[in-house]
Amino acid sequence: MNLTDRVVIITGGAGGIGAALARRFAAEGAAAVVVADLDADAARAVADGLGPVAHAVGLDVTDEEQVRALVADTEQRYGRIDLFCANAGVTSGGGMEVDDAGWDRAWRVNVLSHVYAARAVLPAMLARGSGYLLHTCSAAGVLTSIGDAPYATTKHAAVGFAEWLSVTYRDQGVRISALCPQGVDTPMLADGLAAGHLGARVVAASGAVLTADQVADAAVAGLAEERFLILPHPEVADYARRKAEDPDGWQSGLRKLVRRLRA
């Protein structure tokens, strides 16, 4: 996808990867960039920094009616939606002990929000035979997330849903990509480190933390090539191969890493 003159929606657009995507898409010449976020004021600040090309919307991605309203308003305002970036995400920092409310929040934000977006935008995209969905899924959806059971589980589900969409709709003109970065210097990582979450410590110790702008660069390159898996950290592809070839050895290596960090 060439982003010039495209109409784009980005959820979770007020910070981190979402804000970086908004800036990069605007720089690429997008016709409109809709910055949607639960924090409407922060979304407005990002949009204001991009000039008249951008529009900010307060949005709870777990409310399907709000997602439908956002899509309808954008189509009425700009005539179409070329690219929908389902980027909002949450972590928990916990394991099985995370309560049902925490598991439900992870499921609704990390998975169901992608379902709601697809339900809302696909009819018009399929009718005209073109469109693109970019789902931020994380390398946790390809590998795992040490110390965060809800995140690992729901991100796997997010990759699975994106893959299903691609298999089902690519031949009808709709492209789907799963953006799967590993460590990224965002408020999510900073908050995890401040809380002492094991997963955040693993990421920080890896020495491969990218900036959000670097992830946005990788996303633009992946969209241009219409790749399903967009891996800003290329080593994730090697890790995934090792995991597939030797699951027991892969898990053994992760357990050693956990023991070292806990020591």
TrEMBL record:
Molecular function via GO: oxidoreductase activity
Span of the signal peptide: none
Give the originating organism: Micromonospora reichwaldensis
Q: Which family does it belong to?
A: Belongs to the short-chain dehydrogenases/reductases (SDR) family.
Q: What is this protein called?
A: SDR family oxidoreductase
The EC number(s) this enzyme carries: 1.-.-.-
Keywords from the UniProt entry: Oxidoreductase
Family annotation (SMART domains): PKS_KR
Q: Which domain of life is it from?
A: Bacteria
InterPro entries, A to Z: KR_dom, NAD(P)-bd_dom_sf, Sc_DH/Rdtase_CS, SDR_fam
Instruction: Give a yes or no for keyword Oxidoreductase in this entry.
Output: yes
Q: Which residues form the Ketoreductase domain?
A: 6-182
Class of the enzyme per the UniProt entry, highest EC level? oxidoreductase
